[in-house]
Amino acid sequence: MIPFRRGERAAAPWVRTRLRSAPGAALALALLVAVTACLAAAFPRAVERYEDAGLRRSVERTPASRSVVQLSAPAPLTVEMSQDQREQLMRPATVKDDYDSILGTVRRPFVPDLGQSSYGVATSVNHEVPDPWLPRPSGHPARVALVAQAGLAGHARLNEGRLPRASGTVTATTPEVEAAVSAETAKSLRIKVGSVLHVPDAGQGTLAVRITGIVAPRDRDGAYWAADTLLRTPALTRVVPADPNSPRYWLGALLLAPEAAPVLLRVEELPHRYWRLAPAPDALHHRDLGALESAVASLESGPSLQQLRETVDFLLESSTDLDDVLASHSRLRSGLSTLISIAAFSSGTVAVVVLAMAGGLAADRRRTELALLRARGASLPGLATRLLAETAVVAVPAGALGLAVAMWVLPGGRALPAVLAALAVTVVACAALPLRAATVHRHVHVPAVRQDVTSVRPSRRRTVAELTLVTVAVGAVVTLRRQGTSGGSDDQLIAAAPVLVGVIAALLLVRLHPLPLRGLAGPAGRLRGVVSHLALARAGRGSASAVLPLLALLTALTTAAFGGSVLAGIGEARDHSALLAVGADARLRSPVDSLPAGLADRVRRVSGVREVTAVSIAYQTKPNDGRQAVPVVGVDPGGYAELTRRTGLGAFSEGVLKKGRGGPGADAVLPAVASPSVADAHGSAPFPVSMEDGSSVTLRIVLVRDITPAVTGADFLVVDRSGLGATAATPTTLLVTGPDVDGRALREAAGGAVSVNLRADERARYADSPLQSGVEHLYTGAVAAGAGYAVLALLLSLLRAAPERIALLARLRTMGLTRSQGRRLLVLESLPQAVLAAVGGVLTGWAAIRLLSPGMDLTGVALPSSAAPPEQTPLHADAWSLTVPALAVVAVTVGIAAVQAWWAGRRGAVRELRAGDTK
Q1: Strands 717-720 and 669-674: what pairing?
Q2: What DSSP designation does 874 have?
Q3: Of all residues in the chain, what percent are helix, strand and coil, respectively (each to 5)?
Q4: d(Cα 335, Cα 446) in Å, to the nearest integer?
Q5: pLDDT bracket for residue 734 (50, 70, 90)
Q6: Residue 2 has pLDDT above 80, yes or no
Q7: Exposed (0-12), middle (13-18) or buried (19+): which is 169, by Cβ within 10 Å?
Q8: To pair with 582 at 20 to 30 A between CA atoms, which of 291, 393, 424, 881?
Q9: For residue 357, what are the contacts with CB-CB under 8 A and spacing of at least 6?
Q10: What is the domain partition of the chain in residue ranges?
Q11: Mind listing the pLDDT tens digit for each residue in 640-692?
């Protein structure tokens, strides 16, 4: 035990001494670990927040009539049950007890929102009210639904009168009850406080319903009112809903006191009790999605429903569309999972490489010291343990600080994934220096042994490892191309495919890049001056440890190219979809009549407007006097042809619509541009078209285009509007060109009678889910983090070679090398590796995108399901994302080398050339 105690006492002063001797390096390591741990811990919490927000948005934006779980049971009608027993089932206490039983049966994680859930008793059919003072739009009497829903006082504001009450004990024979109506119902049905409605009962009499109050919902869109919108909003309903010519009647709801529910047995034999369970938004978490779907399914048609039939009513039925909403969100998340994993793997790999480089830099800086300790008998485990303790003293508090910052900035998520991510960063940071030192100093050797590629050849183990990585990368790429990202695979090998492509490229470039540089060194030696030859010779020697800096640069550049192309593809998809929806940068149209006179001139004067194209659109024209209506678009050939060329939507030349043009009249044959379906139906022969104003024109299809800016449907005909009659040629729509058009000024110029639809507004609607926008933010963060770590990797690689370069400049200055020549030497020496990394990064990024694009579909993240086109949105290489990061690498390299040369010039040569210097 005594040697252990002595070693334990000796370790602390040694660690403390090493930290005091290099406080700057310790502070830099702490800052690197803290930032990396913070980013690593923030990533899973950010993903979880986006997933939860996306799930809640999906449920909240679904109409309450679909998102609530509604359970209902009719009033029993059996000979074994007396009328008193049936009335007892309708009373508030009994319905409330059943409601409590239902709440006790519901399985978590489905948590009902008690503030918006409701229960009560209502009639099963709507009853005609013969009172003549009620409005009758088509001569049919109004109908009402009688509803006795609990909690009216807490969910409504009283506008007039008072809330309904039940006098005494209400039974099925009570002749009169009180009720309230919503303000909208009172306005539409002309109901006032004190009005009496006579509802026919099941016999020959009527039930008098006296209106005592008019109420307004406190939360109009809450599930209490929106689960059955008839409670707050009356409906003008047709007798035959499918027939547009069927007579209409008003339908409203009368809100009875819950204690008056037994009177519904007088109106009909089978009123129904109902319980509506609204999901609580705060209890919705994506991590519980599977269990939530199971709980809803059990309540809809599973064990929970069977249990409720045993405890509440054997005729209990359940219905909801919440399961469809959850399934839709699940499909969206599964389509984005691989994209999220790719961002995590790419940025995480760069961070790990930089941490390894930081450990390698520390090991190289202390190579002589560690070699001397090994020569004096230090054991390899003992040396690694001391280095681990030295690093842990700095890295562990820094990692804890980064974790605390991430959890403070992003509260509310699970702690375990963030803790594991920060712990992984801390472990890598602690292990990098000891492992690097143990690898380099596993054998005792002379410290001054050269470590460049001319003396250190790749071992067989390295060759086997590189071949293994190539095989894994090829398998990942093939899997992603076959399976794609839209299938929702969580295979981590697929997510690692872009990183593996960068790894393979880095390994190949490290092996191959010295060869062309050595070949250029010979011809450069015949030139005047020694700077070029010396720079190429030194760059051609290379470093045996250059694989990590190059790996970091290529991975970062691949991440930037891949992530930038993803973001660019999302933007292009949204721009194109918005253009398809609007047809131009803005669309002005009159929903009822033609556009006001002079509107086009006013629009042209609006700031940002470049061109205005007026068109007339007739949607109800009938070719060949048939039943199928086809929209006919009347255009000015010149302006509209220019618009099609500018937007790329079915471009054609101006002369297409002018050929063979005649004047208005039945004998003139107008050339037309048609959609494929219309062209297939009518061919190339002339055919008559009956216009909406009663006129007729003869058209001949001369050109087929899949799409046109004026209309969004699959059927259309485009003609020269000068060949139409005066009424048919009157403009109904203006298509405005101008990316920077002032929307507010455009709406003011249009006036209230003309609707204005902006392409920018349409585009802004497409990121309708926080999960979609979250993936965009994650990719933006991944690109930014990758760029930052790439610059840091570049700086670390240059710092590793800094002592040798400074010593070299000091020696060369004694031989007559000027400061400008020294600056050129360092720049030229660094430039080949930077250009190699830049070119390799561009090629690697392009290759990764080309290899993986067949399996990538950006539709799910770019567009909502309602606006998604039938075809996929593939990934394309973005030129800016490929070239800008690569040029930035070259610029940063040249800048750092220039600063390094300037700093070396400020220092004297005596310090670098002191006796015993082995650098």
Answers
A1: antiparallel
A2: B
A3: 55, 15, 30
A4: 56
A5: confident
A6: no
A7: exposed
A8: 881
A9: 548, 549, 552, 793, 796, 797
A10: 1-62+323-445, 68-287+315-320, 450-569+769-919, 591-753
A11: 888 889 888 888 888 888 755 444 444 578 898 988 888 888 888 888 888 87
